[in-house]
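Consider the tokenized backbone below.
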């Protein structure tokens, strides 16, 4: 009898462990995905690739956002962006530490916890900046091409999502021309979020659809294969599901609108595993940044470049300008502008002492800069006189865009530089990062060099082009605007970028809600 009892017990344990393992696998408990895995079953609705896109201009669409338009499985990266960019590094670390708890919670509790950690005590203004300047980049990079093509084919679009409305509404209306966004509402107190939901709670999509459309049915519905979404799209006249949630990647040339400006420090999608690696790298990365800055500021010698490359810095330099200066004046280097380190890297690679002029530079960065810097005033006549004087003293570096741009675009060039010199050398500069951006529109600019050098392998590509022929300069009868446009096109072709007519003012109005001019503080404000 004893052996029989042992045999029965072994069978029970084996089957229990096997069943648990099957359930664990089917529910997707792995480090990279903190989304809930709702119960899926074979869908009675066809796949979205079967949807005919013709003659839908007058139709109304009801569409889920997460796992339909977005290819990412988890809400977590977007809440981490809110916590890090809108809140602080401490809030982001707290959200990362909650991952073990999130794994064991159900769908609703998981969302409530992430909302509370990301939004509790967060200023509404900070969230508005994050929603406008940070999140759209990551949404565009993770759009499902097949789902987007269906959305773009209809005339009226209504989106439903359980994500907080403040995280998605701006993007959906600005980039996807949403007629309405029905999403979870958050509770606020004064100028701050409390981290709690409003009285309506988490959005229930099929109920929200019935409340919004009433007795009429939308012409087309798109959802995923979960039971909740199938119930949601069953209320539409025609329905399709996204079976392959990862879908096709949206190429840049098919974006609804060009992504030219964006803000924030994180250069990667912060999944749990990627965020963990970032926090593990931070102590070493900070020391690496201090070391690299020390090399450039205090150890300006012929070994600086070699020591920087040894630390992981990647530098590609190509000098196509073989012509000597024909005048007693200095050479005017006209550069594309990617980070504040542009003139420093150019000076090191050329092996020449340069003077850089800039519109915005923190006093700390100006103090520790290893090259001479001069601040401009935005007074055209005064700035022109300053630059003429500097050219008489030596070589000068100018950035006609007036500000940095992260994406493969060149902003409109100011024509002032073309009036000052006949010897103009264009320099195509580009910076590549993998973890942190070294520029900001609304953050602390004094931290820009630190964040750039905290990247494991920051890379700079510098291409010095040939001197502009005299007949294509103002001395050859060209107008200053013609010279500026010619050099902008020359740099764009060398970099593979596109030229735009956007300016510094356009950038700061979009990303920071101001014109990029530091105003004198008159008092302390709390909202």
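A designed sequence for it:
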């Amino acid at each position: 009898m004893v052996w029989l009892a042992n045999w029965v017990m072994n069978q029970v344990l084996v089957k229990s462990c096997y069943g648990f393992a099957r359930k664990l696998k089917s529910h997707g408990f792995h480090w990279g995905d903190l989304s809930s895995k709702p119960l899926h079953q074979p869908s009675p609705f066809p796949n979205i690739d079967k949807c005919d896109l013709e003659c839908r201009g007058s139709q109304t669409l009801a569409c889920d956002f997460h796992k339909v338009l977005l290819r990412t499985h988890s809400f977590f990266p977007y809440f981490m962006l809110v916590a890090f960019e809108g809140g602080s590094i401490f809030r982001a670390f707290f959200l990362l530490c909650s991952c073990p708890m999130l794994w064991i919670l159900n769908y609703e509790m998981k969302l409530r916890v992430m909302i509370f950690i990301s939004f509790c005590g967060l200023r509404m203004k900070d969230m508005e900046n994050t929603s406008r300047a940070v999140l759209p980049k990551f949404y565009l990079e993770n759009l499902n091409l097949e789902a987007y093509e269906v959305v773009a084919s209809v005339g009226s679009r209504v989106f439903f999502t359980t994500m907080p409305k403040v995280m998605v509404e701006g993007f959906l209306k600005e980039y996807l021309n949403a007629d309405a966004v029905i999403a979870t509402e958050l509770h606020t107190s004064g100028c701050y979020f409390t981290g709690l939901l409003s009285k309506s709670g988490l959005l229930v999509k099929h109920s929200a659809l019935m409340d919004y459309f009433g007795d009429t049915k939308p012409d087309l519905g798109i959802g995923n294969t979960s039971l909740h979404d199938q119930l949601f799209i069953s209320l539409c006249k025609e329905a399709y599901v996204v079976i392959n949630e990862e879908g096709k990647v949206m190429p840049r040339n098919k974006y609804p609108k060009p992504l030219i400006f964006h803000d924030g420090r994180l250069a990667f999608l912060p999944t749990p595993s990627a965020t963990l690696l970032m926090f593990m790298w931070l102590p070493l990365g900070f020391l690496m940044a201090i070391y690299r800055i020390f090399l450039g500021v205090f150890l300006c010698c012929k070994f600086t470049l070699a020591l920087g490359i040894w630390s992981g810095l990647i530098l590609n330099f190509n000098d196509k300008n073989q012509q000597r200066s024909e005048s007693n004046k200095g050479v005017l280097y006209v550069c594309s502008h990617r980070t504040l380190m542009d003139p420093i890297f150019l000076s090191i690679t050329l092996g020449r002492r340069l003077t850089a002029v800039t519109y915005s530079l923190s006093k700390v960065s100006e103090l520790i800069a290893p090259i001479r810097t001069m601040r401009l005033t935005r007074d055209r006549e005064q700035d022109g006189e300053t630059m003429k004087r500097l050219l008489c003293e030596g070589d000068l570096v100018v950035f006609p865009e007036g500000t940095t741009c992260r994406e493969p675009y060149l902003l409109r060039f100011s024509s002032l530089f073309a009036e000052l010199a006949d010897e103009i050398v264009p320099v195509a500069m580009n910076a590549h990062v993998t973890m942190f951006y070294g520029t900001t529109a609304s953050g602390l600019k004094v931290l820009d060099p630190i964040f750039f050098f905290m990247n494991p392998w920051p890379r700079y590509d510098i291409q010095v082009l040939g001197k502009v022929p005299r007949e294509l300069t103002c001395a050859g009868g060209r107008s200053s605007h013609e010279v500026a446009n010619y050099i902008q096109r020359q740099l764009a072709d060398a970099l593979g970028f596109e030229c735009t007519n956007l300016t510094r003012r356009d950038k700061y109005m979009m990303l920071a809600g101001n014109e990029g001019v530091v105003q004198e503080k008159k008092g302390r404000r709390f909202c």
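The longest strand covers residues 156-164.
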